[in-house]
Design goal:
Distance between the termini: 48 Å
Number of helices: 14
Oligomer: single chain
CATH superfamily of the largest domain: Glycosidases
CATH architecture of the largest domain: Alpha-Beta Barrel
CATH topology of the largest domain: TIM Barrel
Strand content: 15-25%
Shape: globular
Radius of gyration: 28 Å
Strand order of the largest sheet: 3-4-7-10-11-12-13-14
Structural class: alpha/beta
CATH class of the largest domain: Alpha Beta
């Protein structure tokens, strides 16, 4: 304020002193320029003071203020965050431990669809040919897997890949489990395979069920030589044939692509389908939050987390804009893979940092996408083969032993939010209420603590990384109904539901004993850090202050239990 007063007074007096005569024109022009500069300085000072006043208004007494009024409803909570979740490959879905973990994750995190690679790979026993070259089909393993998914009230987001060896045009494979990534040798046989499989699903589960699924053609075809040996033109042919085969069973079945890495081929796919009258119901693509590359087949690539806070979410927003400006602006947008890192050997996935990372991306990008399928729900994931340590930087929300990582709680807390989102100016908070007036508030700090290019994730996130203290956060609610409430406070952060740091304390053993597993589960059980009864008086106001550190996550529930 003092700065503004000084500049304003000086500027006003200076203007009064400037009176131009013809013989003083150069001097006058100089004075006018100085006057304009002073005006800009004044504007800058005003802007700084307005910002400072806003900052003070939201940081009273040094606290971060999170305000919400139960009478001010922003709208229904966007739940694109748990429409779908990823898994490694179809054959892993036949394992009892995989099915146990998916059931748990579905029940607690609310995921509705699941997507995985390798549905048509030889370890699913789908296709072969007899001596005369006649196709033979076998749906037994697929039936086992899909029957299970529907039994727990989940649906498949069907990725139609990879190529059965007997139908492949080459022998190029990917991953430990040898997924064939070549186009079909005979498109008529490929079309027949897809049509017969979709017809089988229709007969087994009914048209109404199957039309609620999504059919995605292939995976990351733009990574030539990795997931696909063909060109973009080859992929568009594969897409066309596959989409028409699916639609031949029912025009109501939803098909899309291009399922690309790094947000690739979006405009090209839309233009191709529009110009060639090829059916498409949705766009799918992938994004990750590291600075370089798209694939780590052997789990040995070093990665560096992008320091751009709009990584991942910015990609999703830009892709939505591309669709909106295209000839097909009503296409759905599904990010069928995303995470902080694309490698199954990145310890950020195990770290407490991942929880706030997830929440930041969900809050920013959720309104722009139809789904954002986190990759993956489990460390039972064998692209690089079976892993030899309990925490190895795997993608999963859960490790092999059912130990919940901090990332798991990000989705659990999101799922437990109520359906009505309240207006809140805090960019790192979501405050909701249900019809009964009970409150669910989720807030966090998102700080990228990684130092940058000087060190890989694989070194940095393996360390014990204590979180720095920040100003406390004060949650302030208005227009609660008077009465007695149960207040529960849950927390994730450094040494709070932080199994990986506890594992670090154990000196990172390559195998866990039963006792160690129980200790890690106990330390990441998700129990409240505080639970008590509070009374809301007739004012309807309530506030509470929470100590906050970098990347802490709080989930606060208020449930009315009496007058």
């Amino acid at each position: 304020m003092q700065c503004c007063a000084i500049v304003f007074t000086f500027s006003r007096n200076y203007r009064r002193s400037v009176k131009c005569r013809k013989d003083q024109q150069n001097q006058c022009n100089s004075m006018i320029i100085k006057q304009k500069l002073l005006g800009l300085a004044l504007l800058f000072c005003v802007s700084i003071n307005v910002y400072a006043q806003r900052t003070v208004a939201n940081n009273v007494g040094g606290s971060r203020i999170i305000e919400a009024d139960l009478n001010r409803i922003e709208g229904p909570l966007n739940r694109s965050f748990n429409v779908c979740v990823g898994a490694g490959r179809a054959n892993e879905g036949l394992r009892a431990d995989w099915q146990r973990q998916l059931t748990l994750t579905h029940n607690e995190c609310g995921f509705k669809y699941i997507r995985f690679h390798g549905l048509l790979t030889d370890d699913m026993g789908v296709y072969r040919e007899d001596r005369s070259g006649k196709p033979m089909y076998n749906w037994q393993y697929i039936d086992q897997l899909f029957d299970f998914l529907l039994s727990i009230h989940m649906k498949p987001f069907v990725e139609l890949s990879f190529m059965p060896n007997a139908l492949a045009s080459g022998d190029k494979t990917i991953f430990w489990w040898k997924g064939n990534v070549t186009p079909p040798k005979d498109y008529q046989k490929w079309d027949d395979l897809i049509r017969n499989l979709v017809q089988h699903w229709t007969e087994r589960y009914g048209t109404d069920e199957v039309k609620s699924w999504y059919f995605e053609v292939w995976n990351e075809p733009n990574l030539k030589g990795a997931f696909f040996t063909g060109t973009q033109a080859d992929y568009f042919k594969l897409y066309t044939e596959t989409a028409k085969a699916v639609k031949s069973v029912s025009k109501d079945y939803r098909v899309g692509g291009p399922a690309t890495a790094g947000n690739g081929w979006i405009a090209e796919t839309i233009n191709y389908c529009n110009q060639n009258n090829v059916p498409i119901d949705f766009i799918s693509t992938h994004t990750y939050g590291v600075k370089q590359g798209f694939l780590d087949e052997a789990g040995q690539t070093g990665t560096v987390l992008s320091l751009d806070k709009n990584a991942v979410s910015g990609d999703m927003i830009r892709t939505r804009k591309v669709i909106n400006q295209s000839a097909m602006p009503k296409l759905e947008l599904h990010y069928t893979e995303w995470s902080a890192s694309y490698t199954p050997s990145d310890p950020i996935h195990d770290s407490y940092h991942e929880a706030s990372y997830i929440l930041d991306k969900v809050k920013k990008a959720g309104p722009y996408v139809n789904s954002m399928s986190y990759w993956t729900f489990t460390d039972i994931f064998e692209e690089a083969g079976p892993r030899f340590t309990p925490f190895h930087g795997g993608f999963g929300l859960l490790n092999y032993e059912d130990i919940k990582k901090p990332a798991y709680y990000a989705f659990k807390f999101l799922n437990e939010l109520a359906d009505q989102q309240l207006t809140s100016a805090d960019s790192n908070a979501i405050v909701t209420k249900n019809k009964a007036g009970n409150v669910r508030a989720l807030f966090w700090d998102f700080t990228i603590a990684h130092p940058g290019d000087s060190i890989n994730n694989q070194v940095y996130y393996r360390r014990d990384l204590p979180a720095k203290s920040l100003a406390p956060a004060k949650l302030m609610l208005k227009h609660l109904t008077a009465g007695t409430y149960r207040l529960n406070v849950y927390k994730v952060g450094y040494r709070a539901n932080d199994a990986y740091t506890l594992y670090h304390d154990m000196h990172s053993p390559s195998q866990l004993t039963k006792g160690q597993v129980e200790l890690l589960k106990k330390g990441s059980a998700g129990t409240p850090v505080s639970s008590k009864l509070i009374h809301i008086n007739n004012s309807g106001n309530w506030e509470n202050e929470f100590p906050l550190r970098e990347n802490d996550v709080y989930f606060v529930t208020l449930d009315k239990i009496g007058r």
